[in-house]
Amino acid sequence: MEDGKQYIRWNQQWSVGVDSLDDDHKKLIGIINQIIGLYASKSEERHLRSAISKLMKYTGTHLKNEEQFLESIGYPQIQQHKEVHLRLMYDVLAAKAKLLNSHYDGTSTEELKRFLVDKWLVEHIQQGDQDYARFLRENSLKHAL
Ligand SMILES: [Fe+2]
Ligand SMILES: [Fe+2]
Q1: Residue 144: which region, alpha, beta or left (left: phi > 0; alpha: psi -120 to 50)?
Q2: φ, ψ (nearest 5 deg) of residue 42
Q3: Cα of 2 to ligand 1 centre, how many Å?
Q4: Which of 9, 104, 116, 143 has the most neighbouring CB atoms within 10 Å?
């Protein structure tokens, strides 16, 4: 089973200023920690499979929530943001098979961590989503979804 360790900790600087979307991101980070933990503890494949499915499912839900929110506030760059989401989903799908097929050794744990951290945290939460967070701040839009 996973070791419950927080490999990645939520950082307040990543907040997008919308509680429900921050909660989604926190939940995604929780699943990522779970996956890294399963890898690190060389857990059985079925646990890993189910955690990766959970990540994919929740990714889909989150991206939809985010797009609906951006539509509701009339975010001008919504098309570009949707394209980023499509690429992200594609990357997650492409990585799935690779992750499941890779051997449980130190190298693949590092590779997996890099993928989850680079794609998820850096590209999605820290960079991509900060664009609309800035837009919200600049337009002083307060949303409590
Ligand atoms: Fe997001
Ligand atoms: Fe996003």
Answers
A1: beta
A2: 50, 50
A3: 25
A4: 116
The per-residue pLDDT string of the chain (145 residues; one tens digit each, 9 = 90 and over) reads 556 788 888 889 899 999 999 999 999 999 989 988 888 887 887 888 898 889 889 999 999 999 999 999 999 999 999 998 998 888 777 777 676 666 555 556 677 777 777 777 777 888 889 999 999 988 876 554 4
Q: Is 106 exposed, middle or buried (0-12, 13-18, 19+ CB in 10 A)?
A: exposed
89, 61 contact by CB (below 8 A): no
Q: How far is the CA of 62 from the centre of ligand 1 (A)?
A: 7
- Between the CA of 21 and the centroid of ligand 1 the distance, in Å, is 7
Name the fold adopted by 12-138: Four Helix Bundle (Hemerythrin (Met), subunit A) (1.20.120)
Which ligand ends up closest to the CA of 88?
2
Amino acid letter, 125: I
Tell me the pTM. Answer: 0.84
